Amino acid sequence: MKVAIAGAGSVGSAIARDLASKGHHVLVLELDPDLVDRRRLELPEVQWIAADACEVSSLDAAGLESVDVVVAATGDDEDNLVTSLLSKQEFAVPRVVARVNNAKNLWLFNEGWGVDVSVSTPHLLTALVEEAVSVGALVRLLQFEGGSAHLVEVTLADDSPAEGKAIADLAFPRDATVVALVRRDRLVVPRGDTVLQSGDEVLVLVTAEVERTVHALLIGGEGELGR
Questions:
Q1: Using only C-alpha atoms, what is the Rg of the chain?
Q2: What pLDDT is attached to residue 226?
Q3: What SS3 state is found at 108?
């Protein structure tokens, strides 16, 4: 797989190192030539390019038309949005992953800006804290497809309407799929006949349109959705 990363900071470099160690072809675009020179010495197996990832000419010279995935990983949300948009619209990159530095900007990172998957570290850390301490609450962990789909988690309370019911009997909407559940620290691959129990951590992939329906099935009522 060929991956292009915008930004040679600590995040971009760490991603480049991990992907290169797994045998992927990785190229990194970074505006600061001095940083590029340092990174080239640290990670010679990665292709380092001193260029502006927000410029079409730079992306074209880097051969972005042959890239499978672009990761916009700079510390500037505006730059990440521009890189994402150009990657998708000008070069039809199949998958664009963007870093969100300011959680308040998360709503911008959608398919309109060419983003397939956005990753907000502050948002993710908050969600993981909520997931660890919340019972009977729906917590959004990750978003996919430009924000149209979410991975949500709920720890079933004793009074959950799903307690003691098989997944098939709950009649989940078509746009919601139970992808995994954790029961007493053991991962369970769910099937239609899997019976849910209080204390189960249930992971569901949902679209925004059916999130409240899933809330009602697993928690009851509509209630407030987690972040």
A1: 20
A2: 44
A3: helix
128 band by pLDDT with thresholds 50, 70 and 90: low
Distance CA 192, CA 200 (A): 16
- What pLDDT does residue 92 have? 96
- Confidence at 222, pLDDT banded by 50, 70, 90: low
- For domain 2-119, which CATH number applies: 3.40.50.1110, 3.30.300.130, 1.10.10.200, 3.40.50.720? 3.40.50.720
CA angle 136–173–181, rounded 5-degree value: 45
Report d(CA 225, CA 211) in Å as an integer: 8
Which residues is 143 bridged to in the sheet? 118, 150
Of 112 and 145, which is predicted with more confidence?
112
Distance CA 202, CA 31 (A): 43
Letter string b/e over residues 55-85, b meaning 16 or more CB atoms within 10 A of that residue's CB: eeebbeebebeebebbbbbbebbebbbbbbb
Residues 31, 37, 39, CA angle at the centre, nearest 5°? 90
The answer to whether 39 touches 29, Cβ cutoff 8 Å, is no
